[in-house]
Design a protein that fits this description.
heterodimer; A: alpha+beta; B: about 290 residues; mainly alpha; MetI-like fold; about 0% strand; binds adenosine-5'-diphosphate; binds magnesium ion
Chain lengths: ~350, ~290
Amino acid sequence: MQPILEIRDAVRVFKTPEGGAVRALDGVNLDVDANEFVTLLGPSGCGKTTLLRAIAGFEDLDDGQVRVDGADLRRVPAFRRPVNTVFQSYALFSHMSVARNVAYALEVAGVGKDERTRRAGELLELVGLEGMETRKPSQLSGGQKQRVALARALISQPKILLLDEPLSALDRQLRQQMQVELKNLQDEVGVSFVFVTHDQEEALTMSDRIVVMCDGRIEQTGTPREIYRKPKSRFVANFIGETNMIKVTFDGKGTATSVEGIILKVSEAAPAGRATAVLRPSDLTLSDSKNAPAHAILGKVRQEIYLGAELHYLIEADAGGEYWRVTAKDEGVGFHTGQSVALSYDPDVIHLIEGDA
Amino acid sequence: MWGPPDMKRFLKPGWLLLTFYSLIFFSFIYLPLAVIIIYSFNSNPMDMTSWQSFTLDWYRGLFGLAEVGPSLGTSAIYVESTDQLLKALRNSLIVATTTTIISTTIGTATAIAMTRFRFRLRNAYQGLMMMPMMMPDIVLGIGLLIFFVTLGFKLSLLTIIIGHCTFLSSYVFIVVQARMAALDPALEEASADLGANEWVTFKKVLMPQLMPGIVGGAMLAFIISMDDLVITYFIAGTDSTTLPMFIFSMLRRGVKPEINAIATLIILASLIIAVIGLYLRTRQVE
Ligand SMILES: Nc1ncnc2c1ncn2[C@@H]1O[C@H](COP(=O)(O)OP(=O)(O)O)[C@@H](O)[C@H]1O
Ligand SMILES: [Mg+2]
């Protein structure tokens, strides 16, 4: 099946006022399938917005192509592109009612009044805002504005919906609720979503596929599990949640040895050589050093942080090196600072990133 | 949470001072206007400052409805002629209306272009747009006069209109630009995103969003054009006396009661314009 969106070797260079140049997009290749929820994830300034704007037609590419349904969009102005955008600032038209905002695309396309009213009603119902037709945007809460912006962008049945950090202005609780709603909405309307965020948790929650970007390039593309479990680079491992990264030498036969001499058992197949072992804090189990299991790492508790459902520990290995981060469930018994402990793990969960970096 | 109002708060020295200051401030602005309005109904033709009795004669006189002849030994004719007054008023209205339309169009278009497009010498251009506001009227007046004479223009209403447009365009520009700068650029992108071409976006999004600024700028242009004396004085032809010029020439032959009547009418007209303007502003954008 042909992807609905294809981006080929996209390059966009901005001149800085200081006379330099920023490669906001530096050879980006990306395919998005029909009905797919793809998230662009990366730190601020890595080119996410630029990529989205290039798809929408607000930004020209210096090189490369954007194709929707196989058609090159190079000379197609924004108002003729079959994609719609939900803006970070919502960008609702304050001089129009909610219903007129939602039906704007139809009004512009010359659809009759009755049809517009009917469709606007349907879309408002879809986003749970029935009965708000006559309100002005200024009379809505942040979450409601968000929904109006969604309804407005969906009314002309675009092939792709672009969303630029649409939830960043909402408070935490509302944001989590909207994450679920957005995902459900996407399933319901069957439109491909390209969603931009710098929040890894948000990306993991909602996406079919995550695209991790860094400095105008794509670092890795994959399902949330792949990105979380098998990061291809230290950057990705670091960006997606807390992690322990240990520089090791791998013998190619299941044993990795760190600089400090800590020995890790690894099930994953990888070529021998230098590598970085990635272990998530929740993959480590703490036990008393007196009954340490085989292959456990011995150390001392340096800090304990109580977070309600979870406990976070910083452990210093007896062999030295960086502190280990460990997350444990609060099961009544904790370990106290200074206590000798053993860290154990399942060799299946250790992931190796090849190379020196 | 509603308790009895805390009266003590209003008796604090700070509050008293503020109240006192506000009273002085508003008296300073509005007392002269009140005096003019009151005197315009004073029947004393010689000494306006002593009240005789209520009359509408000065108003009737303005419109040629009453013969306000020379009285009490003066030989002056109070209002040169009603015809002249009405002609001056008509001239002023023609100038102000035309100027408002032209300068609002130019000022608005420039403000949009300056905010949305980056081009070379943009800052220099912006500075040039501000210049006429800083320039003393008399310099502007002389400059325009020399300009028109050099180019062989016959001084007329047309030269007044051109002259007014040169500096009123910048007033409108500044007012509209302030509004434009505060506008979220994503609004226009959203409109384009939803299928509107530039013209439709202009009509349906940009114009309504800018309307408070445009109305404000247009009102300002109209009022300044109606009111301008110095610049107009230089570039008006013999046949194109405006209302301020007419009033000024009346004044040169002594302050007469009719002036109060004219002034009161102008105040009334300004109030009406201001009320309409405010109404339009509140209606356009919430
Ligand atoms: N219009 C512009 N002019 C100059 N530089 C820009 C412009 N837009 C973006 N940039 C630069 O391009 C880079 C990527 O920006 P952006 O795509 O907005 O990043 P993100 O959305 O991931 O935070 C940044 O370094 C930014 O400073
Ligand atoms: Mg961004």
